Amino acid sequence: MTALSGFAVPAYIATRIKQVSPAGLRVVHGSTPVVAFGDVRRASVATLGWNPSKLEFLDSSGRLLDGEARRLETTTSLKFNNASSESPEVVERVFDGCNKYFQRRPYRRWFDVLEKVLKQIGSSYYDGSACHLDLVQWATDPVWSALEPAVRETLLKSDIPFLRQQLAQENVRLLLLNGAGIMQAYEAHLGVRLEQVSLQNGNRVRIFRGRATAKLLVIGWNINLQSSFGVSNSEIAMIGTQVSRIANG
Question: For residue range 120-135, what is the model confidence (pLDDT) as tens digits?
Fold first, then answer.
């Protein structure tokens, strides 16, 4: 651990925060790596996505969020130009910004959809019992789905080892995978096989589970709740019910 003013940043997280933003890979200029949305050291449940949205750092005009509008630390808020600063203060501020994300200005339009599932298992982003992790910790512009395949693959190969270490080292007991694409990527890059355990709503909704380690249960569903066309509140509730049943079964 790296001891800083008031708390310790795990050494592997400090190392990740210090990494240089990779040139030519569409990373949002002025952004910092999002090692977690929420405090991964406290959470026992985590949701998993592709990578942070560019809207975590940019406004609708493509300018860095600043002041009260800012969600996370940026090179502007940190007042430095080198995204690989070795300063303990910079490392702490980036980490603290991630830990306190849901206390500041979370992108509720996206996270509150998954919050509906979390509530059914007695967890929440907003009380710190849940956090959100990503396969890639850099926000990109354009968004993930619009990136060139080679860029996506390079980012995944670079950042998956950090996610693997997070899941091994921290106390997350339940990992939730939001959509078929995330499930496929998780199986491919983390080497955990997921098996279908439930069909719902005329076979439209499919639930999968896998056991990553003795401590980590993985549950996923085939529909991305934020982007799939026509996902209803009843289907989200149905997924929450099934996740609760499997997690507590």
Answer: 999 999 999 999 999 9
